[in-house]
Specification:
Elements: H1 7-27, H2 46-65, H3 69-80, H4 94-111, H5 116-137
Helix pairs in contact: 1-2, 1-5, 2-3, 2-5, 3-4, 4-5
Length: 149
């Protein structure tokens, strides 16, 4: 059993695990059955923005676990295409705005990922960033422990 106190390390480990599922699926020529994706966000604002991020990450996950280059690219493009609107930026801290900029940089790298190993590394960075950003706000923006000072 492995453990870590570092979110980044846990995210990379999770990404490697997901990739292992995909390698087994590919080796055995089986396509996993996955639950339906949430529909694309249709409104604006921070909540819709986060739902768009979730859907993009779900597509990237499917791209690794299926495995499917098409699903990976759809997810990466969806992540890049979902920037937080300028009118919403004053509502978030500068730290969250930095996480926001970083996730869109990672999405650009994900679109251009040259190989499977790069995809695994990028996915780990993205989900680690999600966990770190959501950790800033505890239960306000999703499950987690209340933020302590």
């Amino acid at each position: 059993m492995a453990s870590t106190d570092n979110i980044g390390n846990a995210a990379v480990a999770a990404s490697i695990l997901v990739s292992s599922c995909g390698a087994c699926h590919a080796a055995n020529k089986v396509a996993p059955t996955m639950p339906a994706l949430a529909p694309p966000a249709e409104s604006t604002g921070i909540v819709s923005h986060m739902r768009a991020h979730q859907r993009a990450v779900d597509l990237m996950y499917r791209g690794l676990v299926a495995p499917s280059d098409e699903l990976w690219t759809q997810g990466a493009e969806a992540m890049k295409a979902a920037p937080l609107a300028d009118k919403d930026l004053p509502k978030v801290s500068k730290e969250v705005a930095r996480f926001e900029a970083r996730v869109h940089e990672l999405a650009d790298r994900a679109i251009k990922a040259p190989d499977h190993g790069a995809k695994v590394a990028i996915y780990g960075e993205i989900i680690g960033g999600c966990a770190n950003c959501h950790g800033l706000y505890g239960k306000v923006w999703g499950p987690g422990l209340p933020k302590t000072e």
